[in-house]
Amino acid sequence: MSAEIIDGKAFAARIRGEVGSHVARLKQEHGIVPGLAVVLVGEDPASQVYVRNKGKQTVEAGMHSEEHRMDASVSEAEVIAMVERLNADPKIHGILVQLPLPSHMNSEIVINTISPAKDVDGFHISNVGLLGTGQKSMVPCTPLGCLMMLRDRFGSLSGQNAVVVGRSNIVGKPMFNLLLRDSATVTVAHSRTRDIEAVCRGADILVAAVGRPEMIRGDWVKPGATVIDVGINRVPAPEKGEGKHRIVGDCHFESCAEVAGAITPVPGGVGPMTIACLLANTLTACCRANRLPEPEGLTA
Ligand SMILES: Nc1nc2c(c(=O)[nH]1)N[C@@H](CN(C=O)c1ccc(C(=O)N[C@@H](CCC(=O)O)C(=O)O)cc1)CN2
Ligand SMILES: [Mg+2]
């Protein structure tokens, strides 16, 4: 292995520390405490873990945290009523509805009920439009985390050839917009892309966000490229015992690390940055709501 490992866990801890310092200053100088409300509908085991971690890290950063758990059988109207209540609550600066929602709900309708100023996931259609037109918006947490790691490594992204594999609304499309805004030359590759291997081999920056375990192999990677692996895939791990799983990315780590200049591991790469950026977004939303200067280096 020759690639430098980009330690997302350590990077995320640093971001959380910076958020915590800003929060302490906000409290001391203005008597303001940023507040985050997370809405969890149903009992999806992974979502429960993520929501618990969000609450814990929010409190550790000195912010006000609320968790609103709703039964999987509630109606869409009940979830919307909850969001509307939180929209009107002055203690709350950030609202997040944990995804996926149960299948009987339209997540777009629910997400678009969140006040855009409190939409710390950056999924509301207004924030999507603002980002797409290069205006100030709330930026989705996972792509924001990737951008922070890339800026840290490259300084300027201007003129770099970036390939984003995957075109989801949550990662691929906002990642495209963020890289473009930083003047990278950006290609979005997806399941219908012809000769996707060759497209990936042209990338100085390769962001993998397809949700297909270990799809990207070492011979898809340009020597010295920076590889950001957004994938979190659970695959069977019989070597750990019957019914056991392990988590792998969208990149085949061993072969990609032979060729890349730097790579994020899974776990411990992009994942921890998602929650760190959620805290950063909550702080940003709070500063904007109170017409205070935004923290530097914690926004796009
Ligand atoms: N409303 C939202 N829902 C979902 C989002 C989101 O950003 N907003 N993202 C994912 C889940 N997610 C946060 O919600 C999340 C996923 C993974 C991690 C993480 O730290 N992963 C670890 C590994 C975890 C493990 O071992 O299972 C890592 O990569 O190191 C954090 C947050 C879907 N829903
Ligand atoms: Mg990771």
UniProtKB/TrEMBL annotation:
Domain Tetrahydrofolate dehydrogenase/cyclohydrolase catalytic, residue spans: 6-121
Keywords: Amino-acid biosynthesis, Histidine biosynthesis, Hydrolase, Methionine biosynthesis, Multifunctional enzyme, NADP, One-carbon metabolism, Oxidoreductase, Purine biosynthesis
Entry annotated with the keyword Disulfide bond: no
Source domain of life: Bacteria
Segments forming domain Tetrahydrofolate dehydrogenase/cyclohydrolase NAD(P)-binding: 140-288
UniProt pathway: One-carbon metabolism; tetrahydrofolate interconversion
Reaction(s) catalysed (UniProt annotation): (6R)-5,10-methylene-5,6,7,8-tetrahydrofolate + NADP(+) = (6R)-5,10-methenyltetrahydrofolate + NADPH; (6R)-5,10-methenyltetrahydrofolate + H2O = (6R)-10-formyltetrahydrofolate + H(+)
EC number of the protein: 1.5.1.5, 3.5.4.9
InterPro entries: Aminoacid_DH-like_N_sf, NAD(P)-bd_dom_sf, THF_DH/CycHdrlase, THF_DH/CycHdrlase_cat_dom, THF_DH/CycHdrlase_CS, THF_DH/CycHdrlase_NAD-bd_dom
Keyword Secreted among record annotations: no
Spans through the membrane: none
Pfam assignment, any one: THF_DHG_CYH_C
Amino-acid positions noted as binding NADP(+) in the UniProt annotation, renumbered to this chain: 166-168, 232
Gene3D superfamilies: Leucine Dehydrogenase, chain A, domain 1 (3.40.50.10860), NAD(P)-binding Rossmann-like Domain (3.40.50.720)
Oligomer and partners: Homodimer.
Function statement: Catalyzes the oxidation of 5,10-methylenetetrahydrofolate to 5,10-methenyltetrahydrofolate and then the hydrolysis of 5,10-methenyltetrahydrofolate to 10-formyltetrahydrofolate.
Record-linked HAMAP family: THF_DHG_CYH
Family recorded in the similarity comment: Belongs to the tetrahydrofolate dehydrogenase/cyclohydrolase family.
Name of the protein: Bifunctional protein FolD
The species this protein was found in: Paralimibaculum aggregatum
